[in-house]
Structures are given as C-alpha cells and as structure tokens.
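Quick entry between incubations.
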Amino acid sequence: MNGAQALIRTLVDSGVDVCFMNPGTSEMHFVAALDDVREMRGVLALFEGVATGAADGYARMADKPAAVLLHLGPGLGNGLANLHNARKGHTPVVNIVGDHATYHKQYDAQLESDIETVAANVSTWIRTSASVEEVAADAADAVAVASGPPAQIATLILPADVSWTEGATPASPVAPAEPTPVDADAVAAIAAVLQGDEPAALFVGGRACRADALVDASRVANATGTKLLAETFPARIERGAGRVPVERLAYLAEFAAMQLDGLRHLVLVDSKAPVSFFAYPGKASDLVPEGCTVHVLADASGDPAAALAALADAVGAPADGATIQAEARPELPTGPLTADGVCQALGALLPEGAIVSDEGNTSGLFAAGHTAGAPAHDWMTLTGGAIGQGLPAAVGAAVACPDRKVVVLESDGSAMYTVQSWWTMAREQLDVVTILFNNASYAVLNMELNRVGATEGGPKAKEMLDLTRPTMDFVSIAQGCGVPATRATTAEEFVEQLRSALATPGPSVIEAIVPSII
Amino acid sequence: MNGAQALIRTLVDSGVDVCFMNPGTSEMHFVAALDDVREMRGVLALFEGVATGAADGYARMADKPAAVLLHLGPGLGNGLANLHNARKGHTPVVNIVGDHATYHKQYDAQLESDIETVAANVSTWIRTSASVEEVAADAADAVAVASGPPAQIATLILPADVSWTEGATPASPVAPAEPTPVDADAVAAIAAVLQGDEPAALFVGGRACRADALVDASRVANATGTKLLAETFPARIERGAGRVPVERLAYLAEFAAMQLDGLRHLVLVDSKAPVSFFAYPGKASDLVPEGCTVHVLADASGDPAAALAALADAVGAPADGATIQAEARPELPTGPLTADGVCQALGALLPEGAIVSDEGNTSGLFAAGHTAGAPAHDWMTLTGGAIGQGLPAAVGAAVACPDRKVVVLESDGSAMYTVQSWWTMAREQLDVVTILFNNASYAVLNMELNRVGATEGGPKAKEMLDLTRPTMDFVSIAQGCGVPATRATTAEEFVEQLRSALATPGPSVIEAIVPSII
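Done. Structure below.
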C-alpha cells in the first residue's frame, strides 16, 4: 500500500469520505488511489475556489469535514478565499495540498513555492508529511484537528514521493477534542445579569444558530426580557415555520448601532463581539455600545447548545417558553421584476427542508424577510466576506444533502469569481437552483464608495464599479457549463421559472434581470 | 491630497500608468482617485487572477511594470497563481493590496487575515505603508524594486486610512538598480571553453530571448560550434522570419535529456540550470548531464544582451555570423480538424508583429514548429506552471501593444481558471483572438498519470481527468462574457474563422473541437 492509498483509507475510516479536488501531476497517485479506496467520493472542480467553497458548504450541512485536494502553492492560492470564509465560519476542512517530491524541492522547479506561508493565512495546524510511515497518522490527526471544537482548517502538505512510496499502513481515527465543559459559574453569573433590570441581549452565532439551541435561547430571552440577536453572517442558521425567529445584526454599522443601542450587557454564544465590517472615516469600528459589558457564555471551543440549555434552566424558563415562527408566506409578486419581487417569490415557493446559500448581497437584502415564515429550511451566508462563496457552498451542501433542494441567491459580481461551480453541478447532477440577480453593477461598491466618504465618484471611478459594456449573459454562461438556464424580466416569468426549477431535479439557473436597489 | 491620490500620482510619475484591478470597499479611495490622476488607466477585471496575469503579460511586452490593485488577503490569494507565474518569469509587477484601516485590524473583522504571509509566497519586497506621509515614497520604492534588475513582484500593502487621510505629497521616482556589470573574466573563461573541443551549449532565457540578444547568441554558437538552446518556458521570445531560430528545451524530461546528452559545458544566460518540471519515481530531477560543468554568463541581476555581445567579440564571431530564419509558411490544413491542423493554420496566417500567448498545453505542442517561419512575432509562455495564465497575459499584452494582434492558444482545462478574461477583452475592446482547443479532457494529466507510474488509472481516476459530462460549450461562455465566438469542427471552417478573426479588430473566440493528442 502506498502513501496515498493509506492516507485515503485513513480519511475514510475517520469519517471523511468526500474529496473536492482540482489535482495536478503531483497528486496523480492520490487520484489513482481513488480506485483502491472506493468509499472515497472524488468530486472534480475546474477551479480550486470551487473545491474549497464546496468543502465549506459540505461541512456546514454534514457537520463533519470533507477533504479538498489542491495542487501546490498556486492551487492553494486559488483556493484561499473560500478557505478564508470557512475559517471565519469555524467550518472544519481537511485541506490537502500536494507538493513536489521531497528531494525535488531543492531544484526550485517552475511550480516550486513556499506553500506553508500561504497556508498560514487560513490554518493554525499545518503539517508536511515527512514520510510514508507517517502520512496515515498525519491524516488521522488532520481530521481530528479540523473537526474541533474549535472546528478549523487543517492543512496537510503531501509530497509526491510520500504519496507514491510503498510501505504505508492506515492509521486509526483520532478522537477529536472534547468541548470545554459548560462553566456553571459563568452560567449563574449571566443568569443573574439577565434576571436583573439592565437591558441585555443574547448574541448567538455559529452552532448556537441551530434549531434546538435557538429554542433554548428564545426561552431564556422570553423568561428574562432579553433581546435575542444573531450574528450578521452565520455559517448556517435553521429557521422558518416551526422554528425560532431571530433578528440578525445588520451589515451596515449605522443600523447595527441602532439594534445595539442602550444595551448594558451583551452575552456572546459562539459569536464574537460585533465590529464594523469595514472601517469608515470618523466612525467607530467597535460596535459594542459604551458602558455595555460583554459576557461569554460559550465560544468556538465550547458547547453552545448545552450552555444555552443550562442557562434556560438557571433562569427557570418554561419548557414551552420559546417564540415559534408561524407559517406565513408572501403573495406571489406581479409586474416588472425587482430584487424584492424575486425574494417574495422565493418566500412564496421555498420548499420544506430547502437549503439556501445566500450571496445575494444588495439584491438579496429582502430575502430573509420574505422567507421568515416559509417552511423550515437552512440558510447559509458569506461568513468571511470573500465573495465567490455562494455557488461553491451550494455544490457542497447538495453533495452533503442529496435529498434536499438547494437554492443559491447569487449576484452578478460575486458569481463571476467561481462561476465554474455550475459545471460541477452539471457533472454531479446536483439538485441546485441558482437565482442569479443581474443588476449589471458592483452595487455594494457603489454604496461603499459613498459611505467611505470618497466623494460621489467621478466617471473613471464609476466605471470600475459598473458591469455593463458588456452586460454579462448568465444564461449563456450557465448553458456553456452544461446547466439549463432561463431568463426572467417580469415577476410572472420569474415565478413560472422558479416553480419549474423547484419541481425539476438537477441543476438549473434563473437569471433575474433586476434594477439595482442602490 | 490624500494618500491614494499621492500614490497614484507617484506611480504615474514613475512610469506606471496602467492598473489592473478588482477593488473592494477598502480600495474605494484608490478608485476615486483615478479621476484626480487621469493619466492612470484603470482596467477592471472580474477576478483577481485576471488582473495579476494581465499585469504579467503587460510587463512582458511593455518592459515596465503595471500596477495591480487587490482586495485584502482573499483578493491576493485569488491573484497568487499568476503572480507566481510572473515571479518565475522575472516579470516586474507593482502589487498593491488594500487592507483594513490600521486601527481596524485589532477587531479581527470578517475580512481580516494575514496578508504578509500570503505575499511572501511571491514577493521578497513587502511593505505596509505606515502613514500618509510615507505612502508616496513607498510607491516610488515599489516601482524601483519591481523594475529591477532583477525584476520582481513588489507588494505594497495599503491600509484604507492611509489612502483616505489628507496631507500626502507625491514622491519623485527612484532610480532602479543598475545591472551587475558584465564580468570580463567570466566572458574570457567561457569564450575559452566554447573555443575548446568539448561539447557545449548556450542556454538562453529571460531577456536573452529577445531578438538582438539572440543574434549575438547565434553568432557565438556558429563561431564556436556551440549548441544554442532556450529555456522551456520563456516569458517572451522574439522569433519568426528574419530572427534567430532557437530550439527550446523539451518539457518532458526524457526528451530534454536527449537534447542535453553528451554536453560537457552548459552556459546559462539569464536562465537557470535545467531541472525536471516534476519529479518522477526513479527518474533524475537534475537534468544537467553527469560531468557537465555549468557556467553563468549573466543572471537575472545582470545584462544578458551586453554579456552575449561581449562573448561574441571575445570569440571573434563575424558580425553577420548569426543564423537567420527564412520566411516559410505551412500549407493550409484540410479535412477533419486536429490540434496539428489548428497550429498549421496559425503558421499559415499569423500576421507580422503578432503576439502569441501560448497556453495550448498538449494541443499547442505543434504550434512552435508550424510558426517558426511565420513573419516576426513574439511568443509568451507559461513561466511558472500555474495554469490559467494564457488569457490574462493576452489581456495585458493587448493593453501594452494596442497596435499589434494578440493570439491566445488556450486549452479547455486551463481556460476555465480565468475565463473571466474574456469580459475584460470585451470591455476594453482588446484586439485578441482566442483559439480554444476543446479536447474535453485534462490531457496533460492523462499523460502524467502514466508517467508518474500511477498505474493506468481506474475508472474513478480517469473521471477526475475527464472534462465531458458535460462537455463545455466555450462559444456560449464567450458570448456570455460579451465576446463574439464561433466553433470549428473541420480544418476548412477553422481557416475561414481564423482569417475572419485576424481581419477584424477587437476580441473574438474560436472554439476548435479537436481530438486529444494523448
């Protein structure tokens, strides 16, 4: 058994049985070994950012890591943006980067580069497998470290000769870390604060955004008169009818400041204290109000669900004390198509159990509102701000949950970073409907140009934020990647196309021509 | 004047007047300043790899750096692969990476990451502008360092508040380094070796692949019975009728070994000693034959053209002693379309002064042979092995040389990494003909799978190298990006489409459906 075979066998034995990949010559033995360890599913991506984003989406839904296989430093570079998003969302990823053979590195061949420096941007655990005797144990360690808590990106650098050399033995799975136990003193102290008179909020993120944890959070909030807020960009929030409705902190610091205004206590539950997404001249970066004390109930190393359950007990919240969202769907939209109308149609038609991958940016602003009372569904957002995440995450979610419909809210600017995702959707016949908002601009940047105080923007500046000349035709691009696609310019057309796409298994793209809301 | 305005003014005063960019919020003041310093041309790319590859192609043709503007760590990650190619080709690039405001970094906002570690993969000169007082001088230094020799990637990290703060003053240009003087002793010693009886070769690369330098190299070779070889992947080689024909070292180590067999002396001229592109089990990585002495006439810090001229003098080569390529074009191909036929048509029709960006990989293997006697033209290759370079480099070359026709030889697998290039070609109406070889496979990897000894490859492995299910339709993708496109399945169709594309200004794409040569 060679190193690659033992590595893949170890991954499978450790529960990692999907690998999103864009391999090159140095990974050919890994690729060949897929036929020896048949439980490992290889999913080909035509660009590394698709592979890494898919691994992120997969793990958000599967609650276990996938592997990615990348080709040397440049391949890792191409995959970095979506690994960044995974890191910020505390998503586990086993990030395997093929390297030259150990003895070949000294020659500084064309593809030689410093892989570890690049990996350090996203990984605190980076290991180069030194020999065929060690590679399987390295793989088992990587899975355990990635799984957490805290979940993270574990980067395993795999020299080609370690892959191809015979004499490897699979390693046994390594148990991941136990979560930090719930701190009874902290729970008691926070309970006392929440039962006091000062305005307070529970600020939930990460794994505290799952349905059961939110029920306990809502019980606490209702029993103590505490506000319940979720982080701006949760990796996965379980929502819709029958679940707890949660307001998310606004992206724009001005609005977030209003949501937080007057608070004296902010309790973090697998979230971090809110800060402005970007800095703006003359505006505060730290959004925690003056005089507000920040408390930590659980962090990424802990067990937020157990901590919330303990807190609910501590405040004596009744078992049925949570606020539960009633089913409520908007009317179907009519007339000229707008971003709001698209979101309204989504709210009217979203099927039960759907997974929404939301990178709608400005156009998607209305989506959360219109779908609040739709049947229970999961919502994934852009955790790290590196755009080009929505389509790949949908690929991964669809691989993780083949029985659920995935809907991507994608915007024109963001789509173009990882548009190759559509090809993988076609190849794997993934059940994904892409709703592509085409407003022919980097709308969010038109807004930001003003918000950062950079004047109104002259003609040359505006040109850099404009996506016309030429306007992209996403129907053609999608079809070119093998995905059936249609275009909607009226609400009626969009509704009909969305109905049809939701009723048809497999991938499809609907290009919604909408005016910019900015 | 704010920091961004002073920075751009300084770049322009230092000769850098094109910026390929994919900006975000933290770069909005840079973008706004384009209207204040109107000599700077901003060229928008929809993906960072297009921007960095375009800067590479631009500098290869303009012989001076362009700037690129990227958005934080993820943007740099997306641009890294083509910066890697530029680094390996010794191409100058002023790599500007926007960052959060200095005071904002402590909050670890969503887009916060360690930019310097990523930059270290491609840059030995990395500077974070610390204040508005320093930013202009930093920019002048960056241009000088990038320009070299040795030419390199200079990375300037630009915090948003340094951009937006008032009080900056433009800086004067900084003179770049002088090349290392030609070493008369080394010239004399090498001349003696070449005039001796032992088999020797001149191995030219980098700036030694320009027309004038090659004339001197050929004079030396002919006067001394020395073999003349060029590196496998030159950044830019000037060739065709009226120029010196030069054999390039083969990509496959087996063939390269034959070209180098029996040599006792190898003289490097702005090149590095040949090594195998990848390692293969049981095969040598170092391609310099046993017993062959390596001599350095000039390196990337020197002046290879002057060194070759001095060497020609030292060996007493006659002024007209160079071998000059006669004009010779192949016949037009007929019948079913093949990769060879495409290259034959290119040789028959390539216009004088054309620039060829060659990422044809396996399908492009015949291109050099069929175009050897075409009218004088420039040829750019994939210097660092990170695929997705051909289309962006063509963007940059076309911006640098608006009066010359650019032809891209691109393969299906490679095209998909930076396919967004077509949109920039359409927006800027660049005069670029893309010849897209569609053989529906990662053909080079099918070859490599066998070469690395990874068995024949089972069905799961083969699947990872196969680009069918679905076959991509590049006509649709190109049209979706705003570029007119046609498809050719016979040689006659291809010839007609190529004639038409060459005769029509502006971008076009021809998808050539060809069988894989592997």
